[in-house]
Amino acid sequence: MQRLEFFCIYYLVNKYIVLSNLIPYQFMKHVYYLACGLALLFAACESNDLGPVKKARVSGHVQKGPYVNGSSITIIELDNHLNQTGKNFATSIIDNSGSFEQKDIDLASHFIQLKADGYYFNEVSGKLSSGQLTLYALSDVSDASTVNVNVLTHLERARVEYLVQEKSKSFAAAKKQAQKEILAIFGFTLPSNVDSESLDLTQDAILLAISCILQGPYSTGDMVEIMASISADIRPDGVLDNQALGSKLMNNARNISLPAVRKNLTDKYAVLGIDVTIPDFESYVQQFLEQEFYSQTLFILYPLTKGMNILSDAVTAVRKGHEYSMKADVPEDLSLKIVVKDGLWYYLFPPLNWSVTPYDAANKRQEFTVTESGKPNELQFRPESGTWDEEKKSSYITIEYYENGANIPNKIKQLTIIDPSEVVECEFTDPLTDLTWLQEWIAFSENPNSSYYDGLYITKIYQCVYGQDTQSGIGFIIEAWYNPGGEYETKMKMVMRCDGQNLCVMEGTYDQSCYDFNIRDQKLIYKR
Q1: Under 8 Å CB-to-CB from 484, ≥6 apart: which residues?
Q2: DSSP H or E segment with residue 162
Q3: Which of 209, 197, 174, 190 is closest to 82 using CA atoms?
Q4: Whole-angstrom Cα distance, residue 425 to residue 462?
Q5: What b/e string do you get for 153-177 counting C-beta neighbours within 10 Å, with b at 16 or more?
Q6: DSSP-derived pairing of the beta strands 365-370 and 317-319
Q7: Which tens digits make up the pLDDT trace of 246-280?
Q8: Beta strands 411-418 and 317-319, pairing class
Q9: Which stretch of DSSP H or E encloses residue 457?
Q10: Dihedrals phi, psi of 439, to nearest 5 degrees
């Protein structure tokens, strides 16, 4: 408390003691005056009426990821009501870690606004931003010489200005309230004595988590629009009322590769020669997802298709020389790259909305990238050979999924390649008396010699052993007639291959006339 304020309180208290000996009417009148004086005094203490300040230096970091060398910084003098006075100080970022410094600053009040313009390192994509980004920070520099500029200080600005100028809050109270409200959008909290402009991306997990969630797979321009919309929405009441904006945040959080973000930042600072330990931001992103404040509306899906989509989770095995599909539902603003490796395959040209790199024979590898999101894609894929797994006694190819610009796979799976020549020791089994669990799937028996399922008559089931020994898998060959006596009467032979836990995937051989039937049954996975 300043000397003048202390003297005023001392004087008023002593006046109260003296007047307490007066007659009641006079006493009550002076008590009223005393109360009014104290109210005015404490209102003055709550206000922003602070005098000039001189700073030997103001420095800090600008981070989204870190801004690049040469980005411009403007330090703007504000009056006690956060209006610009017209006095500015221009400086720039002096290295690729985003640091800046300005010396010898004389200010009319304790308050400044920092404005940073430039390109930044995108921690989600691992690349330099596609456009320039403007970030702001408001700060009371009476007791601070370090002011960092980041996404939290940027989102706070409009709300702090509203609370000071429209609700007559003190700057300190407005800052604390705005920070608390913005963190609540994500379900996070910080200690009350931690200012947003003191946070550092390489040390504070909450700041990094929010930075990733805001960025998502978006371009710089799209991210600017999201932050501007959030700032405008929360300005009058501190609450994010627009659920569509919340869904965009949820989509971003679910569709970024957290391992890639960690690697991108670690590599970036290593190049800069800066030894950092990236904080545990992943747990905060996961915390945001688990709270389910908003609904997710964007997913990359890998549906089962007519051609048995090799990208689908349901497809774990394919037959050598057979044709399958490669398809993904990729909404606008999302992206997908698929890497297939560890074998040999072919695809039919031209693919629909896939760009394909030449086959790398040395590494047995090829990349498939969705050319344009939000539009259909399709590719016909035929496996020929894979890498032998001695333990499983089978061959496989590997599929890696790189979603939304990730440089580390979001998901990896091995696809077993079944070679028909590996089927040995087939033995006929009566389909009506044995393998009742399989019979349940077939549906029901119509006569003693056959089973009927949607136009399919099962005539024989052979139980087989696949691979080099009896431990490598059990399967079944089913002989059947489809649509007997109808327009598309066709004899079929289908193969059901099971792993050690009797998890089975059905495949088939067919002519074009029974295509739709075969498609339906290839979707089946049966757990014994």
Answers
A1: 455, 457
A2: helix 151-167
A3: 174
A4: 9
A5: bbbbbbbbbbbbeeeebbbeebbbb
A6: unpaired
A7: 999 999 998 888 999 999 999 999 999 999 999 99
A8: parallel
A9: strand 456-466
A10: -65, -35
